[in-house]
Amino acid sequence: MKKTSIAFLILVISFLSGCSVIEGANNTLTYATEVTEFANEATIFAKDTPALAQQAVSNKEAATELEASLQVMKTNIEEFNELQPPEMAADLHQQVVTQNENAIKGIDLYLNNIKDGTLDPAVLENNEAFKSLGEIKNIVDQIRDLVGQ
């Protein structure tokens, strides 16, 4: 009876430790997928939004579209910052979070300066949001290499 109990205990422990390995692999894969999606969104945003911002100076429709785009990107950034990276990617994730914080400051500047459906032209001189999000691609590429994606 004692041998059966010990064997059963070993089997349960082996199963549980195997589950944590599988869970860790799933978390790493999920994180890599999230990073890739965020990088794609940030790249498109950084590429397309400066032209829209130029139009928003004199076009109320463009300003409304810009405001919506800025809000969506800000939400995406905040959601990304809340992700829990695998231990091996923690430092790189923090670098992305730092860039994201700079981008949020730039986004907030744009949002605060959209008045009466147009953007103050002086704000266009600050494109920190676009620079920060453009720089994320390099860090994300390092993360993908690290987690094997």
Summarize the structure.
It comes from Planomicrobium soli. With 149 residues, the chain is an all-alpha fold.
Notable features of this structure?
Four Helix Bundle (Hemerythrin (Met), subunit A), 149 residues, single chain, mainly alpha, two-stranded antiparallel ribbon
Question: Nearest-angstrom radius of gyration?
Answer: 22 Å
Structural class: mainly alpha
What form results from the Cα inertia axes? elongated
Could you name the CATH topology? Four Helix Bundle (Hemerythrin (Met), subunit A)
> Residue share in helices?
over 70%
Give the number of DSSP strands.
2
Biggest β-sheet: strands ordered side by side in the sheet: 1-2
Low-confidence stretches: 4-26
